[in-house]
Amino acid sequence: MSGPAEKEPQPTLGKDVVGVLVLNDISERMKFGKNKYGAVLRTFNGRDALWDAYQEALDLVMYLRQEIMEREGREHVVESKKG
What we know:
This protein has 83 residues and is mainly alpha-helical. The chain folds into two domains: 14-42; 44-74. The chain is 52% helix and 0% strand. It has helices at 18-37, 49-71. The radius of gyration is 18 Å and the shape is extended.
């Protein structure tokens, strides 16, 4: 079992080239955005990109922690101070 402070082993050669998969994902995401909003993401669009990205990063961390817990098959009851 790993934890947030534990080191991972050196990677092996592996199989798929991750960068190619990411480029494909970006292309698909641009198509999705164009279909949903009628245009691809552009600069000076009236939104605060830093806050948008920060909120998306918070969502990402939540999804990552959920997947870690589910992969480990654990339920961890933690009482939050703020709910």
